[in-house]
Design brief:
alpha+beta, 7 helices, 4-stranded antiparallel β-sheet, about 270 residues, 10 strands, DNA-binding, Helicase, Ruva Protein, domain 3, about 20% strand, N-terminal domain of MutM-like DNA repair proteins, single chain
Length: about 270
DNA sequence: AGCGGAACCTGTCGGC
DNA sequence: TGCCGACAGGTTCCGC
């Protein structure tokens, strides 16, 4: 579900409300969401104060007032809800009770989401294996070309690989490739340096615009407290199969790549 | 090494 | 109406 712009929106909104708050207790409704026994988890997190919230790739990172971090991945359907009282909610998987009476609910229909605790964030394997941020200065056409030089996968597949660029998902991959006028099925080593340059440029452009719109709400993604993003109003290809391309009027194609939908214009994208 | 497919879990939608 | 398969914004594991 949420990609970089959605996760960043949630970071921004949670920061405004929970920095400085202390977790008084925690209720775990679904054990598979957390990375240890519920007893150990509750004990570790009790009386911790939130000092900052940040994002790496699609991971949310909550920092506390001691050497402890909570690392959350929302996967497809995870979201956070802040409420004064916890009405019984079928999909509330973990409920954090804060010192100001608010409850922060981790809500996740499909239960793919994960919550982990770490006492040494620099040694967290999954975070360590992430590629660079799209706005990282180290991301240049030349560095990308070197990193991809022996790859055989399509450019769409490479965009979804979090160890190369972190934060892109299925919606923005299609939108970025349309903006860059690159065929998603193209083997990545066949791209020219100027196409790689355009790819990086389009990535930053699309993500910045999505962020400005608080993300894309199609079905499940919600901001904190169920508010919706608005970038769905600006999508040009995702979910638009059969509709005319905004540039050349040719119907948008929908294909499957690695079991996932890709949308593109076969005329504009080469 | 790195690719594609299956699996994880739950809900919804479209077709017959 | 009812059932059944396909599909959903992600990642990990496995076999090749």
């Amino acid at each position: 579900m949420p990609e970089l712009p959605e996760v960043q929106t949630i970071v921004n909104e949670l920061s405004q409300t929970i920095i400085g708050r202390i977790i008084k207790s925690c209720e775990i409704k679904r054990d598979s969401v957390i990375d240890r026994s519920s007893t150990d988890f509750r004990r570790a997190i009790r009386n911790c104060k939130f000092t900052s919230i940040s994002r790496k790739g699609k991971y949310l990172i909550f920092q506390f007032d001691k050497p402890l971090w909570m690392i959350v991945h929302l996967r497809m359907t995870g979201k956070f809800i802040l409420v004064a009282d916890h009405q019984e909610n079928r999909y509330g998987r973990v409920i954090f009770k804060l010192d100001n009476g608010l409850q922060m609910i981790f809500h996740d229909v499909r239960c793919f989401g994960t919550i982990e605790l770490s006492s040494d964030i620099d040694k967290h394997k999954k975070l360590f294996s992430l590629g660079c941020d799209p706005w990282d200065k180290a991301l240049t056409p030349e560095s990308l070309a070197i990193k991809l030089r022996h790859r055989k996968a399509s450019v769409k597949s490479i965009l979804l690989n979090q160890s190369i660029i972190a934060g892109l998902g299925n919606i923005y991959a299609s939108e970025i490739l349309f903006d860059a006028k690159i065929d998603p099925t193209r083997v990545v080593t066949k791209l020219t340096l100027s196409q790689l340059k355009q790819l990086i440029k389009s990535t930053k452009k699309i993500l910045a615009s999505a962020l400005k719109n608080n993300g894309t709400t199609i079905s499940d993604y919600r901001r904190v407290d169920d508010k919706q993003g608005t970038f769905q109003n600006f999508l040009k290809v995702y979910g638009k199969q059969g509709e005319p391309c905004q540039t050349c009027k040719t119907p948008i194609q929908k294909i499957k790549q690695n079991q996932r939908s890709t949308f593109f214009c076969k005329i504009c994208q080469r």
